[in-house]
């Protein structure tokens, strides 16, 4: 049940007035945001960031998904901020509920235990449905059927720099399937048996593991253990056809059967990342250095002064801050992005600084 926003203006087409070349080729792409009605103003804030820095030139559509019905107020206000078509999708209950093989009493006990251990979101039932939904179902929502590429946007995010090219066209022209801005280490307590499960999948479905995979981004010992590196999935620019593939469906089903979305607190970030690292050609992964991005509490910001000025970045330059306040997270110890550059054989951007703190 997908309804276009009533008050959404006719979708504006990009044209020369937007400063786009006459050869500009619009992509089959959309933004996608999962949100609750009470997230309205935080969603509007994120839309404004994305419109001001990027979408005012391209007018891509924006799909909003919710496990409850969006209110008329939500739809009207949100539609008035999106320069493309705003589409409001409903999540069917079977994409946001317990599969029949899950023991719900056991799951409730786990939530109590994880709460006592103060594990982040350990107590939360909706958070687990959200992580399972983002892993296995967002890309199956009918509202996304028409699109090939997506950009995931969450409430409360910021974009620090202008984006002066079409990210979706970049994906297509460079044969990329998964793009990220931030990568980091996962809390081990949330995924204790995830890697064991992934190894089971690899043994049972070797035909789905890409011969040119990026296993060495997520494992330091050839696959024996997981090094906890993952792409932070609150920002993703990706190819929906990857999630729709037989390989990923088999991967998700295998994980879902194992029960870790409920008996632990598996996040969609490690699930997406492990899948992207194992099932894709490693050349399909992309780090967007020039997309200045913030989601509490980490940020990505170009370090190169020329880039920062050209793109009108508002994140403070690292050099301007005392060491204990520097927050160009990307090149610091808790980020996996230096490792990504190493294993992919990429040159680091001009101006990166090694931090040992
Ligand atoms: P965090 O980024 O891991 O701290 O988690 P968030 O609270 O930002 O949730 C991740 C995404 O899922 C955001 O886009 C939220 O708006 C959305 N979300 C989280 N819980 C729910 C929920 O229960 N219902 C709906 N509709 N969206 C949710
Ligand atoms: Mn968030």
From TrEMBL:
GO terms for biological process: cell wall mannoprotein biosynthetic process; protein N-linked glycosylation; protein O-linked glycosylation. The keyword Membrane applies. Keywords: Glycosyltransferase, Membrane, Signal-anchor, Transferase, Transmembrane, Transmembrane helix. It is found in: Membrane. The active site is at residue 236. GO terms for molecular function: alpha-1,2-mannosyltransferase activity. Residues 4-17 have a biased composition (Low complexity). One of its GO terms (cellular component) is Golgi apparatus. Belongs to the glycosyltransferase 15 family. This is Glycolipid 2-alpha-mannosyltransferase 1. It comes from Wickerhamiella sorbophila. The chain holds residues 64 to 420 of 421 of the full protein.
């Amino acid at each position: 049940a997908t309804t276009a926003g009533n008050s959404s203006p006719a979708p504006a087409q990009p044209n020369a007035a937007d400063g786009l070349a006459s050869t500009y080729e619009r992509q089959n792409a959309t933004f996608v945001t999962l949100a609750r009605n009470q997230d309205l103003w935080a969603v509007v804030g994120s839309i404004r960031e994305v419109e001001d820095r990027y979408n005012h030139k391209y007018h891509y559509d924006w799909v909003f998904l919710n496990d409850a019905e969006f209110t008329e107020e939500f739809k009207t206000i949100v539609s008035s901020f999106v320069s493309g078509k705003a589409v409001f999708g409903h999540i069917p209950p079977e994409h946001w509920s317990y599969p029949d093989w899950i023991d719900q009493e056991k799951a409730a006990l786990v939530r109590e235990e994880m709460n006592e251990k103060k594990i982040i979101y350990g107590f939360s039932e909706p958070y687990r449905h959200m992580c399972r939904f983002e892993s296995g179902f967002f890309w199956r929502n009918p509202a996304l059927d028409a699109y090939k590429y997506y950009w995931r946007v969450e409430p409360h995010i910021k974009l620090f720099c202008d984006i002066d090219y079409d990210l979706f066209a970049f994906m297509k022209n460079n044969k990329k399937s998964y793009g990220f801005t931030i990568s980091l280490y996962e809390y081990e307590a949330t995924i204790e048996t995830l890697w064991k499960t992934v190894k089971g999948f690899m043994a049972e479905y070797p035909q789905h593991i890409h011969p040119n995979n990026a296993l060495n981004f997520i494992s330091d010992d050839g696959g024996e253990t997981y090094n906890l590196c993952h792409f932070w999935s609150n920002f993703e620019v990706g190819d929906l056809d990857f999630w729709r593939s037989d390989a990923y469906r088999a991967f998700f089903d295998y994980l879902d059967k194992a029960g870790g979305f409920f008996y632990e607190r598996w996040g969609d970030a490690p699930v997406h990342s492990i899948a992207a690292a194992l099932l894709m050609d490693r050349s399909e992964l992309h780090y967007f250095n020039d997309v200045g991005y913030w989601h509490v509490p980490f940020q990505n910001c170009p370090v190169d002064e020329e880039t920062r000025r050209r793109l009108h970045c508002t994140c403070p330059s690292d050099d301007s801050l005392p060491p204990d306040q520097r927050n160009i997270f990307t090149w610091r110890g808790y980020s996996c992005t230096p490792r990504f550059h190493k294993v992919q054989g990429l040159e680091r951007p001009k101006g990166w600084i090694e931090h040992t703190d």
